[in-house]
Write a structure and sequence with these properties.
Elements (H helix, E strand, L loop, with lengths): L6 E6 L3 H12 L4 E4 L16 E5 H9 L3 H4 L4 E3 L1 E7 L10 E9 L13 E5 H14 L3 E4 L4 E7 L2 E6 L4 E9 L6 H6 L3 E17 L6 E7 L2 E8 L3 E9 H8 L3 H12 L6 E3 L4 E10 L3 E2 L2 E3 L5 E2 L7 H21 L7 H29 L4 H15 L2 H11 L18
Parallel strand pairs: 1-2, 1-11, 2-8, 5-13, 11-19
Antiparallel strand pairs: 3-7, 4-7, 5-6, 9-10, 10-11, 12-15, 12-16, 12-17, 13-14, 14-15, 17-20, 18-19
Helix pairs in contact: 1-4, 1-8, 8-9
Length: 421
């Protein structure tokens, strides 16, 4: 029976979450085959993805343990502070930039050491992907099947068989579906989902600014939605600018001068002159989450389990936490001689991850609806609320640890501990 399987686990989807999971499984002694429709080398091209991710400090611990962080160091930026506030109205006497009511998070409140952990790390996704792919190719025991589309899967005795577009098939004890928010694997399994659109689009761009950002991330709320300025190495920032879809599409089509005018209205001058530094991307925003995080012989990871609003920058972090929990569950099951793909094994994974996931779905949805408007009395109340929380150290520390992924029962990898035997 053992020789009939190509590996213990087949990971379908070679995005950031899928690659992280494959590396974690390999370290844990669980054999793995990674399948992706795109050539992994092509995925390293700068034009593939304009996004950057804010990595929680627990997520970065895991990337250190699995070896990816060493390859990312030249491209990461520490986040020392986070400033959350209502943004100034576009047409006010001093439009753009942070408003008067602020909530300030300082990493020294939870990491007081001089060179202690930051609140998080910023890295452009292309550099994270480059590091993960390089690590995968250096692991001789990980089988990479890319570029190759998967056609369908079928249950077989003791496992699952994945049929590929070229006629081949792969057999594993478990299929880990990390094939995105619109997962075909999940659709074939018939796992129900719930979700909704926001009629919002996230405009993603990189900007250069005159003054240093000093490792401060800004998240301020404008009538169209959240507006995040996330520090990158040098005097650069990743801009995640949410607008109603109709307005966002118009902004994306503007020429350089028109885009600059809209940028100046919102960004403000607190970092000096600012200008666009690269192409723009637009991503329609929605929420979708699976009713179950597993089926028989199938586990859902990353956006296949749930895709959330990017307001808190937690999308990739949730995928990393999925990978950390699932790798530990499967390593424990293998050491005890348990079936890797059985409901008994996968229930532990689902229980570990579902509460955290649903909490973030609810929280990001609530904050987006509360702050994405320009109702005068509501602006005043929420601004005063931010100022009130800012005066309560215990509340600030709770939110920082929650965003950092350090609440609840942490998997070993998120503590910076290896799963290697």
């Amino acid at each position: 029976m053992t020789n009939s399987f190509d590996s213990d686990v087949i990971v379908l989807g070679g995005g950031l979450a899928g690659q992280t999971l494959a590396l974690a499984l390999d370290q844990a002694g669980v054999s793995v085959t990674l399948v992706d429709a795109a050539p992994l080398d092509d995925m390293l091209a700068p034009e593939f993805d304009g996004r950057a991710s804010a990595l929680a400090y627990t997520s970065y611990r895991m990337l250190e343990v699995i070896g990816a962080a060493d390859r990312m160091r030249a491209h990461v930026q520490r986040i020392e502070h986070i400033l959350v506030c209502d943004g100034r109205p576009y047409g006010g006497p001093k439009p753009g930039g942070p408003g008067p009511h602020t909530l300030h998070f300082d990493r020294r409140e939870i990491h007081p050491e001089d060179e202690g952990e930051p609140l998080g790390w910023m890295c452009e996704n292309r550099h994270t992907r480059h590091a993960l792919t390089a690590c995968l190719k250096a692991r001789k025991d990980i089988q990479l099947v890319a570029p190759m589309k998967a056609d369908r899967w079928e249950h077989i005795p003791g496992g699952i068989e994945l049929f590929l577009e070229d006629g081949r098939s792969l057999k594993g004890r478990l299929l880990c579906a990390s094939d995105g928010k619109f997962s075909r694997s999940r659709q074939q399994a018939g796992t129900r989902t719930a979700g909704w659109g926001y009629d919002q689009t996230g405009i993603v761009a990189t900007v250069e600014h005159e003054k240093p950002h000093d490792g401060v991330a800004y998240e301020y709320f404008l009538p169209g939605g959240p507006y995040a300025i996330l520090p990158l190495p040098g005097n650069r920032a990743s801009l995640v600018w949410t607008e109603r879809t109709e307005i966002a599409n118009a902004i994306l089509k503007l020429d350089a001068d028109g885009f600059q005018a809209e940028l100046d209205k919102r960004f403000g001058d607190f970092l000096g002159a600012v200008k666009e530094a690269g192409p723009r991307w637009g991503y329609p925003l929605s929420v979708k989450f699976a009713e179950r995080f597993y089926e028989d012989r199938i586990a859902y990871v990353g956006d296949a389990a749930r895709g959330i609003h990017p307001l808190a920058g937690q999308g990739f972090n949730l995928g990393i936490r999925d990978a950390a929990a699932l790798a530990e569950v499967l390593a424990d099951a293998k050491s005890l001689g348990m079936e890797l793909g059985s409901p008994v094994t996968l229930q532990r994974y689902a229980k570990w991850r579902k509460l955290d996931s649903m909490g973030l779905v609810a929280a990001t949805d609530m904050f987006n609806r509360l702050f994405s408007n320009d109702i005068g009395p509501l602006r005043l109340v929420r601004g005063l609320g931010l100022s009130l929380v800012d005066k309560i150290p215990a509340a600030r520390q709770f939110f920082m640890r929650e965003a950092g992924g350090e609440t609840g029962d942490l998997p070993k990898l998120l503590k910076g501990e290896s799963l290697a035997a």
